[in-house]
Predict the 3D structure of the following.
Amino acid sequence: MKRLIILLFVLLLPLPAWAVPAVDQVVAKINFDNIIGAQDFSFGTLPAAGSVVCATFWAWANDDFDISTVTDNQANTYVVTKTAVVAKSRAVIACAPNVNSSGTFTITLTPTNAGGVYSVVSAASFTEIQTSSPIDQTASAIDAGPQANDATVTSGATTVDDEVVIAVAIIASVGDAALTITTPAGYTAIAVEQDNNAHLGGQASYLIVAATGAQTATWSHDDVGSTADDGWGAVIVTLKGIVAAGATRRYGTPIFFP
């Protein structure tokens, strides 16, 4: 009887929960065409306070696009990861950890360019991410046209079992209104623009992984042409889940009786 009571007591004890990163809110694709100056967009539903908010976008300008600042109306600070310029464009991921979040959450993208900018913007928030220095790995790659190879980018080895991987690609092929860009295998799309004629082609996705290792995102697409406005660029960022590196999941505690 004593052994049975002890066994029941242990079985009824709650095991510590293993918190897994999860997507919280998403801003779907917004096209900004030939806009001069800062570009604002907002979440339809407020991101969770303490989450990580990442703006994911790609943009073109005739004088070679570059981003000056990414800010919001919540006083959060963004870390910007971007490709080198290719086809007068860049792919960009900008993440703010442990965000303040109230009222309407509006993000502002301010380019360095004086002229008109074409961009495709989106954003996502993620919960169960470390609140201090959550960015683990970053990488970028570019390939100027002409080329027919897939767009691809690979990060360094992640250091935490549970991480969010965010990847963005700009696919530029002049006059192509149907780029047939695919979502990288295993990823979930945040935004995609297939029309590089009226807008600017590209794709943003995320993946939640449960083991450490290098992370790769690959997009197939139409062949890219050979002008200065053709080519692809890709950028990847990984975000550490709240469990510290080296921790192991606890599935249960073995119990032995004499």
About this structure: The chain is about 5% helix and 45% strand. Confidence is low (pLDDT under 50) at residues 1-16, 250-258. Residues 18-240 form one domain. The CA atoms of residues 27 and 44 lie 7 Å apart.
